Here is the input.
Amino acid sequence: MENLIVIEGKEKYQYRDIESLVEKFINENYFYMTEADRKAELEKRAIINNPQNKIKICKLDNKTTNFDKNAFIIYDEITYILSLLKFNKIILLEKTNANILGKYINKENIDENYLILNRFADEIMQKYLENN
Here is the structure.
C-alpha cells in the first residue's frame, strides 16, 4: 500500500507522496506554474469546491497563525489540501510512519496503520503554518 490513500465519493486513489496527490487534485502542471498562477489555480479550485458559497474562502499572503478556522484557507497547496479535509471534500489516510502531514500531530497513543487526517486537519494546519 502507498503512503497516502484518498477517498473521494466511491473512488479510492493511492499516492506515494504529497506531490503526486497535488498533481491529481489541483493540477498536473502545478509545480511548473509561476507563484501567481499557483495562487490563481488554488483560488479557482476552492471556488469549484464551494458551489453554494457556504464556506468563506480566506487567502493568506503570508504565514500566520491568526486565521479564520471556519474558512477554506488558501496559502499554498498544503493548506488547500488541508481545507479539503477540514470540509470533508475528500478523506485522506496516511501511513502512520510516513510522516508527510502526520508529522505535525502527536502519534504517541496511535496504534493504527493509517491515520485519518481529516480528524486532525485544524491541528495540522495550525502547526504547518507555524513551522514552515
About this structure: The chain has a mean pLDDT of 91. Helices lie at 18-25, 35-48, 77-86, 121-131. The first helix runs from residue 18 to 25.
